[in-house]
Every structure is written in C-alpha cells, then in structure tokens.
TrEMBL record:
Every R3H domain range: 139-205
Stretch list, region Jag_N domain: 5-55
Record's signal peptide: none
Function: A probable RNA chaperone. Forms a complex with KhpA which binds to cellular RNA and controls its expression. Plays a role in peptidoglycan (PG) homeostasis and cell length regulation.
InterPro entries named among the record's database cross-references: Jag_KH, Jag_N_dom_sf, KH_dom-like_a/b, KhpB, KhpB_N, R3H_dom, R3H_dom_sf, R3H_KhpB
Entry's localization field: Cytoplasm
Name of the protein in question: RNA-binding protein KhpB
Protein family membership: Belongs to the KhpB RNA-binding protein family.
Protein's gene: khpB
Species this chain originates from: Anoxybacillus tengchongensis
Domain comment (free text): Has an N-terminal Jag-N domain and 2 RNA-binding domains (KH and R3H).
Keywords: Cell shape, Cell wall biogenesis/degradation, Chaperone, Cytoplasm, RNA-binding
C-alpha cells in the first residue's frame, strides 16, 4: 500500500496536503497522527508542526474516488455502485444520463474504464482489474458482438475471402476471438494500430 508522511501547521493541513499529493479523497485512506501541532510558547519558541502518516487503505477506493470526481466534472446525473469480486472491482453506473456515459458503441464507457485502470495501476503492483458497466450495456454489447461474429464468419466462408470488421476496443476484439475460437474452418487475428485496430476473420488454408 502507498504511504506518505506529511507535515503541516495543523493536523488538518497536513492531511489535506497528503490527500492532494496522493490525488485521493479522505475516504480512501487511513490516517495516523504521528505528532500533534503545538503552538509556540508566548508565540516565540517551543512550537512544533503536526505530522501525519497517510496510507491508502485499498487501491479500489482510489478508483471509486476518481470515478466520482470524473462523473461530477461531466455534470451527468448518474449513480455509481461498486462491488469487489476477487481481484477485480466491478463498477455499475445507472441513472437518467447513463447514455451519455456509455457513448457511441461504448466509446466513452471504454475510455472511462481505461482511465480507471490507469489509476488502479498507479496505486498497486498486484494484477487487479476494474470493469465499468452501465445498466447492463456490456452484456448486451457482448451478445450483439457474438451474433456479429457468427454472421460474419458465415459470410467469410460463403464468399471464400477474409472479412475485416470495424475498429473495436481490446475487450470487444476479445469477445469476437472467443466467439469464433471453436470454429475449425476459420481463424481470427487483430490488425492495424489503435484506435483503428480491428479483427480480421480469415479462412483456414
């Protein structure tokens, strides 16, 4: 866990400086007061600064704090709920403006998840993951992608040539690869560079 020691004229000031340095909210940390501030005697001597030790209680808390801040800055009416599932944090978004958070083909949602994963990686060396869903969007998108994969595979076989799909996120490409992994007539691979990386469905020669 990331831990820092900070000084200040008061305990409150030292804590605020530590939170600013860590870029987290007070709810995401454990605070130990190492030394209380002491005013100088007669305003001349004997004073001492406050010293606090601030430790991030769990990197998942940092992600939750980050997402709440981003949603607030986006000025959208969206509620956030978090659930820890082993080594991953699943974040559920819901509310009146949830479509704005999803974006076209989930682009905004994917970008938000990528940023959240970056925050998580900053505060831990463990292989933890964050998944962000919005009112079941990812499940619906997965079902759509599986249908697309099956249809395009069938088309590739009928036409006898490779078919390139539209650019997709890494998660979406993985869904396509997995959906067609058991078909011994075709193979799939990713081509291109981000943000235009896409899946190619190819006949096995």
């Amino acid at each position: 866990m990331k831990r820092i020691t900070m000084r200040g004229q008061t305990v409150e000031e030292a804590v605020e400086k530590a939170l600013a340095r860590l870029h987290v909210s007070k709810e995401a940390v454990d605070i130990v007061v190492v030394q209380q501030e002491k005013k100088p005697f007669l305003g001349l001597f004997g004073g001492q600064e406050a010293i606090v030790e601030v430790t991030i209680s769990h990197p998942f808390h940092c992600v939750e704090s980050f997402l709440k801040h981003v949603i607030e800055q986006m000025n959208v009416r969206v509620q956030l709920a978090c659930q820890v599932e082993g080594e991953r944090l699943v974040v559920f978004l819901s509310g009146r403006d949830v479509a704005r958070v999803i974006g076209k083909h989930g682009q905004t949602l994917n970008a938000l998840q990528l940023l959240a994963q970056g925050v998580l990686n900053r505060y831990t060396d463990r292989p933890l993951r964050v998944v962000i869903d919005a009112e079941g969007y990812r499940k619906r998108r997965e079902e759509t992608l599986v249908r697309l994969a099956k249809n395009m595979a069938k088309k590739a076989i009928q036409m006898g040539k490779d078919i390139s799909l539209e650019p997709m996120s890494a998660w979406e490409r993985k869904v396509i690869h997995t959906a067609l992994s058991d078909d011994d007539r075709i193979q799939t691979f990713s081509a291109g560079t981000e943000p235009h990386r896409h899946v190619v469905i190819s006949l096995k020669r």
